[in-house]
Design a protein that fits this description.
The complex is a heterodimer. Chain A is α/β, with parallel strands linked by helices. Chain A has one domain: Pyruvate-ferredoxin oxidoreductase, PFOR, domain III (Pyruvate-ferredoxin Oxidoreductase, domain 3), CATH 3.40.920.10. Chain A is built from 6 helices and 6 strands. The model of chain A has no long low-confidence stretch (mean pLDDT about 95). Classes of the chains: A alpha/beta, B alpha/beta.
Chain lengths: ~170, ~375
């Protein structure tokens, strides 16, 4: 079964890193995964988007069409990237950063960045909180798998905080 | 080895290392920087050297020097940097120095769209440096193939003592997918002199395969290296005969091995009436359009150039004889299509895109439908 995700926000929020970790988790469960990204020339700010396709079959064209899940971490990203969502799909929004919900029936609102700031003191962890939310909502990979993938990817002295971030997101929905 | 998620650029670094590259000189530029980052991580572990130079020209110069000193070498850049390297790519051709240059294409001309995909450097890869020269240009469509082609590029550079362009694009360079890499690969060793100086060794005297066994600097031979046309001693000679023979040999050392170098993937061609020809990252989308056409009962085949240059004249000519039309899908204003038109025996239709975004399968499918309608 092909599953398609789009993670969107602005540069610096870590949506590309989150997408890479998710794809790594899928691969470690033996699935095929393709991860692509598009971003502006700026180091921070500017639109940022990453897409992940997970499938048991081989994946050729690397871009998603009618994603099953969209994460939007800014209002701009939400407005821009929900339109081609699979009608049965889910739109995941950062509750504070996306004040206005687009006209879509299945929306999950989670205060992703706020949780990172309040519980871990840094918005830096927002992408890992988002990953926890995504894994809970999409059930694409096991929670144990994503834990391992996060631990493998983040700097070793931040593993504990990132595990907390992941759990925060997972428990928030 | 179990599957792991890897980026195309990362796979190029891994492949080059596996093929024996022990020196990288470069200057960062999107979307190629991960190759330099990969080499910076990998090379020190195997006793190799990574140097970030002051610019792209120096990056090209330093790999020429390292290659002459006996190292297998790599540099990587994108459009603006590749333009700067052109003079020294010509020097590598003339002085027959094995070098691999990776071009991760982005939108140009000039600084263009730094983070956006394009395939606009096809003809630059062939003719970017001046003068009559021969060159090998290879283009992968997947992360796994990026690894394989990096190995091949290094091997061809060494075997033919020529610059080889690994022409990839932002699509494949930045794409991550699951790969399993081989533990061992076939490696072409650095060519060595077969006779001593006393026995009459001349550094630019071609071997039977028309490639000279130029000694590495520092290994006891006297070598003169120049971009001027030179004879077998390596020293410049201002004669029509030497000039003619030098230029002819530089072409023939590669053209005589064309059947080995040229690699073309074909699918669904047995009964095909039409076909889509593509390369690099765009071929991934073209393949989906062909699968879709087959589902719709259309007899459409798929042709992918792995070797862009030397161009697959014979193969395209032959397969086009059985076709009623051929589409060339490329992420530029139309470059490879001219090469295809030169040899194809059927109508050729360009499917071009040059707006920062990659093709969607529907766009190539529409071109297929248009072509079928046009030839009916």
């Amino acid at each position: 079964m092909r599953k398609q995700l789009r993670l969107s926000g602005s540069g610096g929020q870590g949506v590309i890193t989150a997408a890479i970790i998710l794809a790594e988790a899928a691969v470690s469960e033996g699935k095929n995964a393709v991860q692509s990204q598009s971003y502006g020339p700026e180091a921070r700010g500017g639109a940022s988007k990453s897409e992940v396709i997970i499938d048991d079959e081989k994946i050729y064209h690397p871009h998603v069409k009618n994603p099953d899940f969209v994460l939007a971490m800014t209002q701009k990203a939400a407005d821009k990237y929900f339109s081609d969502l699979n009608p049965n799909g889910t739109l995941i929004l950062d509750d504070d950063l996306v004040p206005n919900s687009p006209a879509f029936k299945n929306i999950v609102r989670v205060p992703i960045t706020k949780l990172a700031v309040e519980k871990l003191g840094k918005s830096l962890f927002a992408n890992i909180v988002a990953l926890g939310v995504i894994v809970k909502v999409t059930k694409l990979v096991d929670f144990e798998t994503i834990k391992k993938s996060v631990a493998n990817r983040v700097p070793s002295h931040t593993v504990e905080q990132n595990m907390t971030a992941l759990q925060l997101g997972y428990d928030a929905v | 080895m179990s599957a792991r998620l890897m980026q195309g650029n990362e796979a190029i670094a891994e492949g080059a290392l596996k093929a024996g590259v022990r020196f990288f000189g470069g200057y960062p530029i999107t979307p190629s920087t991960e190759i330099a980052e990969g080499m910076a991580k990998l090379l020190p572990k195997v006793g190799g050297t990574f140097v970030q130079m002051e610019d792209e020209i120096a990056s090209m110069g330093v790999i020429l020097g390292a290659s002459l000193a006996g190292k297998k070498v790599l540099t990587a850049s994108s459009g603006p940097g590749i333009s700067l390297k052109q003079e020294l790519i010509g020097y590598a051709s003339a002085a027959e120095i094995p070098v691999v240059i990776v071009n991760v294409q982005r939108v140009g001309p000039s600084t263009g769209q730094p983070t956006a995909p394009s395939q606009g450097d096809v003809m630059q890869a062939r003719w970017g440096t001046h003068g009559d020269h021969s060159i090998i240009v290879l283009s992968p469509w997947s992360v796994r193939e990026a690894f394989d082609i990096a190995v091949k590029a290094v091997n061809y550079a060494e075997r033919f003592r020529t610059p080889v362009i690994l022409l990839t694009d932002e699509i494949v360079g930045h794409l991550r997918e699951n790969v399993e890499l081989p533990a061992d690969v076939e490696v072409y060793p650095r060519r060595k002199p077969k006779i001593s100086r006393a026995e009459g060794y001349e550094p630019y005297k071609p071997d039977e395969d028309l490639v000279p066994n130029v000694a590495n600097f520092g290994e006891g031979f006297h070598i003169h290296v120049t971009g001027l046309i030179h004879d077998e001693t390596g020293f410049p000679v201002g004669s029509p005969k030497v000039t003619r023979e030098a230029i002819k040999r530089m072409h023939e050392k590669i053209s005589r091995a064309e059947d080995e170098i040229i690699e073309v993937q074909t699918e669904f061609m047995d009964d095909a009436e039409f076909a889509v020809l593509s390369f690099g990252g765009t071929a991934r989308t073209a393949y989906e359009s062909v699968l879709d056409a087959r589902k719709r009962g259309l007899k459409v085949g798929f042709v992918r150039l792995v070797t862009i240059f030397p161009f697959a004249d014979k193969i395209i000519r032959e397969l086009s004889k059985n076709l009623r039309g051929l589409i060339v899908a490329e992420l530029n204003f139309g470059q490879l299509v001219n090469e295809v038109e030169r040899v194809a025996k059927c109508p050729v239709k360009l499917c071009a895109k040059y707006d920062m975004t990659i093709f969607e399968p529907e766009e190539i499918s529409a071109a297929i439908d248009e072509l079928i309608a046009e030839v009916k």
